[in-house]
Amino acid sequence: MAGDLTDNRGRGDAAWGWPPIHPEGRKFGLIAVGISLIFLLLLDWEIVGWPLLALSAGVFAFFRDPERVVPQGDDMIVAPADGLVTLIMQVPPPVELQAPDSQGLPGLGTEPVTRISIFMSVFDVHINRAPVGGIVRRVHYIPGKFMNADLDKASEENERQHVLIERSDGRVIGCTQIAGLVARRIVPFVKPGDIVAVGQRIGLIRFGSRVDVYLPQGTDSKVLLGQRIVAGETVLAEIGKQKLIEGVSQ
């Protein structure tokens, strides 16, 4: 259950259950069901009604919001999204996150850092979570294109939303929600000044997308290119830890 403490020595409880549907998606699922019933019961067009009913189930599944067991540790950065690691690159942070803000609160600077890009297909959970705990310093929305989110240039050209979180030690971690070919809306759950816990839900992207995470200087990724990861559970990195990790696809 949410809020329960578990550990690696068997403490706590675990049981499988149907994941709840996030309130943001219930209206879309109910609309799809309503249209399906019109075709099935009023118009008697089964050839259309049954596929629409199946699509309704898919809509509910897209907005599922399962509980996650979030690792607790001072230096851990956890995955903000479910999906596939498609890019790990050394790049300068986004311009919008580089400089201090009008109140003098720090940005990410201009020096290159490691960016981990996580691609979410329509089959992945699309609830995004905070990679670290702290104070939300920026939520910056930028309109843009809707090209394939798997492309590197989507970080600069697609519709996107930057979130900057300052930890209690003053370090700042940035992540960017990026719309894709199908996605048409980024929905934030937080605003500047909010205090978030690591793994807390911070937003969602409707229908396929990508999330980038910018690691602090001197920090390497603990995940590998091509690895599937789980939001709020997979540890992306440990701050200040640098080590080459190799993997073999099989």
Automatic annotation (TrEMBL):
Active site: 209
Cofactors required: pyruvate
A Gene Ontology term for the protein's cellular component: plasma membrane
Keyword Transmembrane: yes
GO biological process entries: phosphatidylethanolamine biosynthetic process
Single GO term (MF): phosphatidylserine decarboxylase activity
PTM annotation, UniProt: Is synthesized initially as an inactive proenzyme. Formation of the active enzyme involves a self-maturation process in which the active site pyruvoyl group is generated from an internal serine residue via an autocatalytic post-translational modification. Two non-identical subunits are generated from the proenzyme in this reaction, and the pyruvate is formed at the N-terminus of the alpha chain, which is derived from the carboxyl end of the proenzyme.
Top-level division of the source organism's lineage: Bacteria
Cellular compartment(s): Cell membrane
Subunit structure: Heterodimer of a large membrane-associated beta subunit and a small pyruvoyl-containing alpha subunit.
Family to which the UniProt record says this protein belongs: Belongs to the phosphatidylserine decarboxylase family. PSD-A subfamily.
Protein role: Catalyzes the formation of phosphatidylethanolamine (PtdEtn) from phosphatidylserine (PtdSer).
Database matches in NCBIfam families: PRK05305.1-2 (NF003678), PRK05305.1-3 (NF003679), PRK05305.2-5 (NF003685)
Protein name (Swiss-Prot/TrEMBL): Phosphatidylserine decarboxylase proenzyme
UniProt lineage: Bacteria, Pseudomonadati, Pseudomonadota, Alphaproteobacteria, Sphingomonadales
